[in-house]
Description:
- This protein is 30% helix and 28% strand.
- By secondary structure, it is α+β, with helices and mostly antiparallel strands.
- The chain folds into two domains: 13-40; 48-150, Immunoglobulin-like (Sandwich).
- The strands form two sheets. The chain has a four-stranded antiparallel β-sheet. A three-stranded antiparallel β-sheet has the order 1-2-5, with no helix packed on it.
- β1 and β2 (80-82) form a beta hairpin.
- The model has no long low-confidence stretch (mean pLDDT 86).
Amino acid sequence: MSPITEEVKPKSYWGHGIVVVYALFMTMILTIVFISSDQKMELVSGEYYNEGIDYQQVIDSRANVAALQEKPNFTQSNMSITAPSSLNKEFISATVTLYRPNDSTLDQTISIPAAAESFTIPELKNGSWQIYLRWQDTQNKNYEMQWNIYK
């Protein structure tokens, strides 16, 4: 006669499984915290509070642009801003601000000569950019236009 063999069921260690899942979850959370704490965080501006108070001037400047018959035009293919001839005779000073949201070291502000009909933007690094054109006319009215580009 053959001996009777009993089938041995493996013991269930479900408690160990919960501990392993919990440990993996904690490791993942701690990894995310350490990686995110090493990321560079920059404010848009060091004087954001004062700029927030003065934002009404920006709203008025953009409303002045909306009231114009002809507006400056930005062409991304050749990276240039062209002003209509009617505006060239009326503005006193103008600046172009090149703003890089994720790296303030690349930000630039460039003055445009009063007689310039067009302005070519210097070479930009690839990525997201905001281009601001601000000018003042002979009656001291301020104007501002903004273009968002991805190069």
